[in-house]
Amino acid sequence: MKIYTRTGDQGSTALIGGQVRKDDPRVEAYGSLDELNSFVGQAAALADGELFAELKLQLVRIQHELFDCGSDLAYARPKEQGYKVHAELTANLEAWIDAWEQELPPLERFILPGGSPLAAALHVCRTVCRRAERRVVSLAAEMEIHTEVLRYVNRLSDYFFTASRLANVKAGAAETEYKRSGKVFR
After folding, report:
1. What domains can be seen in the chain, in order of their start residue?
2. pTM for the complete prediction?
3. Which of 18, 30, 48, 114 could form a disulfide with 76 if both were Cys (CB 3.0 to 4.6 A apart)?
4. Can you tell me the distance from the alpha carbon of 33 to that of 82, in angstroms, rounded to the nearest whole number?
């Protein structure tokens, strides 16, 4: 099988159930999720060793779930059932966040992205996730989508923020507080 099909040479691509232009809002939304998935893969590659074994497993699981999100957004027409993303996936993210917050120092001020290489990569995941979320929100304003995808992507950025903080704690890397921030978290 050849990797190239030439079907997109005129600027169109296939959705599940139809053809659209490559700049269609659905393609933009699931393309942003695909970009995020690549950055998650990069973070997973940095999550080496026993110290980050659980995090690495979670990141690979999230990669599969991001493919599920893209699949659910790739339908030319909404369907009533059979979507891959469901509330349990979002609940899993919340459980991981809640468990990790017990290991983190209290957060009072905004922090700058960075610290350890893994934490910095997870901050990139967070910001790319927020952009992907904006694309999904824009898509939802134009047409009906599977709304659980939006909930999942929203919670996922919170996961990446918490995971970045945990990566710094485990690596012994300091977080840098934004100097001009007052205490915004209580």
Report:
1. 12-177 (1.20.1200.10)
2. 0.92
3. 18
4. 20
pLDDT tens-place string over residues 115-124 = 999 999 999 9
Work out the average pLDDT over 152-166: 98
Could you give the residue ranges of the DSSP H alpha helices within 74-146?
87-101, 117-142
Reading the block at residue 49, the tokens are: 């060793």
Q: Where are the beta strands (DSSP E) in the chain?
A: 12-15, 18-21, 111-112, 176-177
Bridge partners, 20 (sequence order):
13
What's the pLDDT score for residue 73?
93
* Cross-strand bridge partners of residue 60: none
Contacts 24+ apart (CB under 8 A), 135-139: 135/25, 135/28, 135/29, 135/32, 136/29, 136/32, 136/33, 136/73, 138/25, 138/28, 138/29, 139/25, 139/26, 139/28, 139/29, 139/73
Task: Count Cβ atoms within 10 A of the Cβ of residue 133 and give its class: 0-12 exposed, 13-18 middle, 19 or more buried.
Answer: buried
- What pLDDT is recorded for position 127? 98
